[in-house]
Each structure stands twice: as C-alpha cells, then as structure tokens.
Design brief:
There is one protein chain. By secondary structure, this protein is an alpha/beta fold. A 6-stranded parallel beta sheet has the order 2-1-3-4-5-6, sandwiched between helices. α1 links the parallel β1 and β2. The longest helix has 17 residues.
C-alpha cells in the first residue's frame, strides 16, 4: 500500500519517522513529507503558532505538492493530529484515494463533500481536549453522510498524542492497540 503520512503540529519528530518505519516493515511504501521544512517544536502552542505563521492554505499547498507524484498509484492518506486534518482534506479531494488513517485528529467536512465508500479509521483519546465528544459525533455523522465507511477506535484515559513515546501523552498499551488495528486496516484495503 502507498501511504502519505503527515506529521503533527510538533513537526517531523522521531515518533513520526518511527511510525513510517513500522509501516514500511509491514510492507507498505510510505512517504513522510515535512510540511514545516525542518522545524520541530517542544510544545503544542509553539507548533500552532508556526502553523498560523505559515497559513493553512500554504500548508495544504505543500501537502498537495508532496502527494501529487504518488497520487496516481492510489494513496492511503494518514496523519497525526494536525496531520490527520491535512490527510482528511487531501483524501476527500483525491478520487483515487484508497483509504484514510487518522491518528489523534480530524477536520471539518464541507456540507457537499462526497466520497465513494472511502475506508476511514480514526484512533482517538477518550476524552481528547482537541476532539470533544460533540465534535466527534458530528464529524462521524458528516463522514457517513459524505459516503465514507468509518471505523472509530477510542482509548479511555490516553493523552492526545498517545502514540508518541517522547511526549507526556504517551500510552504504551493504547499505542500498541492502535498500531495493531491500523495495520489490520491497511491490510484490508
């Protein structure tokens, strides 16, 4: 499977590279674009300030340019938190998308959005300060209305970025459950 994996607001940190290696070891071809051009951050606030400085349109442009050479092969878009938001936007705009793997984050969905049974898997902390229950319920219903085939995995008590071993949010058990389910999802596509 060809996967385009986007980093979180912390930037392209070791945990993202390790995730890509884990996916490669399972037989997948993984691209990991650096939307922040080498910058990484120690806090969410620093990363969000950098995102705002660059601007959403520019970040989406960088993501599209990174994915374009690979999109004809039929990509699975994936991302961590902010990267999940980017992945969701690209998957909805790419009629050749094979799937969408969201780790710790979602994005708004246009009222007229439509996909043809796009397989989607979301892994999310429960509760998650960036993805409140009301938001996730509305997101799930909009995804279904758009035609996506959605599967949600919730991890009670885990922190927001619970798959990153270098962050305080890390939860080893939830991370292993996530990767087991995610690899099964990718194998099913």
């Amino acid at each position: 499977m060809n996967i385009m994996l986007f980093h979180s607001t912390y930037g392209l940190r070791p945990a993202v590279r390790a995730a890509a290696e884990r996916l490669r070891a399972a037989g997948h071809d993984v691209q990991v674009p650096d939307l922040f051009e080498g910058r990484t951050f120690e806090t969410v606030e620093e990363g969000m300030a950098h995102q705002e400085e660059i601007g959403r349109d520019e970040l989406l442009k960088r993501a599209v340019l990174a994915a374009a050479p690979f999109s004809d092969a039929g990509l699975v878009y994936a991302g961590f938190s902010f990267g999940g938001s980017i992945a969701q936007h690209l998957a909805f705009a790419d009629d050749k998308a094979r799937g969408l793997l969201l780790l710790h984050g979602t994005s708004d969905i246009a009222d007229d959005a439509a996909v043809d049974e796009l397989p989607v898997q979301l892994h999310i902390a429960d509760p998650d300060p960036f993805e409140p229950h009301d938001w996730l319920t509305a997101w799930y219903l909009r995804m279904q209305r758009a035609g996506a085939d959605v599967e949600v995995h919730r991890y009670p008590g885990a922190g927001h970025l619970f798959t990153d071993p270098d962050l305080p949010d890390y939860d080893a058990e939830a991370a292993e459950q996530t990767w087991k389910a995610a690899l099964g999802f990718l194998d099913s596509l």
